[in-house]
Write a structure and sequence with these properties.
The structure is a homodimer. Chain A is of the alpha/beta class. Helix content of chain A is about 45%, strand content about 15%. In chain A, helix 10 links the parallel strand 10 and strand 11. In chain A, helix 3 runs parallel beside helix 5 and helix 6 packs parallel to helix 7.
């Protein structure tokens, strides 16, 4: 799947991923109204609203982008109907040829981690049959539990040719509380980065590993170091746009081949119509605003990469 | 909810929690067969099988125990129908008066962490109405992202009088890879433990905080230290039984008041009928085997506490 991700990036010339993290407050009123008219102000109604919202944004942007990253928490908050909307979103994006990175940040141990890996990337055996529960192409994984938590994911990735992105240095202000703590003179995130490189060696695609890393756009200097620590790992970079990261901060996350990083924007794309910059589209045309925001983001990153 | 947990522990005189982590392989064939007869060998069939399995175990043990801890990964592997079985299990256990600790190990940042907190412990606003998606009483939380990931949970815990258990030192063999790394001469897990104590001060119940910690039974010496670092935090202790922890290892996790810890057993209880010790019950009477395993576990811990 890392090979397909790279192929999609080359085809679109856009090393970006659209974060499908639909807060209900992002969904324009006319979309909410239509959903509530059908299902009432219920979990099912909310799930329908975010699904319709997603669908229109995917329809308006899929030809420009290689991948999407639905944030499962935004669906999980709507209970079981929300999880159904998540699965429907994953399936729809795959139909459109997009690579789907499930931002699930799961992590547990042994058979439990294997259950997560199976549920999201693999197939579960039921009697004589096999099923793929949420069938994303990649998943994000939390490393706090160590190799016992990661290895079951590696096993499933190998079997299914899928991939993971392991949290190394997250984009948030307090990420340093634990991640930056110095261990023998080097920060914890570097130690995690080294393990990512090590785990990644076991499951190599054509030029990059099935095992990538998450490193926030808000920490470009750390990105520079981590790029070297994990040369064969794709870096999923959150924190662009709404969280403060800019195109010029991102160049350090890429390798000389122009690959090696994929930059996420969520709010900045899916709720673009609420920004002054895209206000002329109006709430009715929110998906067109998202398309324009994608074009602007691609140009920003392309410009920064060309200027380096 | 911490007050209710303590009340339940005092009532049952059993500082234990039954881990409802149903692998399909634990579910006796007659239960699987009945479920597949109704729903086929499908995700729905598997979800029905684990729900019926859970229900019988809860019916056979609820008068002896204060709490259950369903491991969401075991449900998530069966996709959306699995998540529905999870929710149904949570609701049923609550009807029986049990405190439900959702072992979800979630953790993200800002509004995303808030979405998890709302989905599992709080209420989501949909138009003029509010809904509780998975409505557990406690949830486990991964601390790797720092305060930004934890504070949204604290906010929801305060509003809803619910609680969390933060991963501090997990029970698995490789937990030390990152958690034991020394920072200024002290291991990372101690630093996390200090933050747990600090976060916990904001949300106090009558005698213990809404914020607890997860510390594995397999590391009793570390438990001893952490007990002192977080005096007002309940410790959820996995790793008893199948993972190798024994009654005598557990005394250090408790405070002088005989409270402060709750010991989990999953496989050891729910799959007791597969152990030689309980084989006489037979697969047909798996729930009775679970009841006996609960009685034995309570006696083991009680004996160890009395002997200290």
């Amino acid at each position: 799947m890392i090979n397909k991700l790279i192929e999609n990036i080359k085809k679109t010339n856009a090393p970006i991923v659209v974060g499908l993290d639909p807060m209900l407050s992002y969904v324009p009123e006319h979309v909410q109204k239509a959903a509530f008219a059908e299902y009432g102000e219920t979990l099912e109604g909310a799930a329908e609203a975010i699904w319709q919202f997603n669908k229109a944004i995917v329809d308006a942007t899929y030809d420009l982008i290689p991948a999407v990253k639905p944030q499962v928490a935004m669906y999980e908050q709507f209970g079981v109907p929300g999880m159904a909307a998540y699965e429907k979103t994953v399936a729809y994006c795959q139909e459109k040829g997009l690579v789907v990175i499930g931002d699930i940040k799961r992590g547990d141990i042994g058979s439990t981690s294997e259950a997560y890996a199976i549920g999201h990337l693999g197939q579960v055996q039921i009697g004589s049959k096999k099923y793929s529960g949420f069938h994303e192409d990649f998943a994000t994984v939390n490393p706090y539990l160590g190799s016992d938590g990661v290895k079951p994911f590696l096993k499933v990735c190998k079997e299914e040719k899928k991939g993971i992105f392991i949290l190394v240095k997250t984009s948030n202000p307090s990420s340093g509380e634990f991640q930056d703590q110095e261990i023998n003179g080097r920060p914890l995130y570097e130690l995690v980065g080294e393990k990512v490189a090590e785990w990644g060696e076991e499951v190599m695609g054509d030029s990059y590993s099935y095992v990538g890393a998450v490193v926030g756009a808000t920490y470009p200097e750390m990105g520079k170091v981590l790029r070297k620590v994990m040369p064969k790992s794709f870096i999923l970079v959150p924190g662009y746009g709404a969280q403060g990261g800019q195109g010029k901060d991102l160049v350090h996350f890429f390798n000389e081949d122009g690959l090696g990083a994929i930059v996420n924007s969520s709010r900045g794309i899916i709720a673009a119509y609420r920004q002054e910059k895209y206000a002329q589209f109006g709430a009715e045309n929110y998906a067109d605003a998202s398309r324009q925001a994608v074009l602007d983001m691609v140009a920003d990153i392309d410009g920064a990469l060309k200027a380096r």
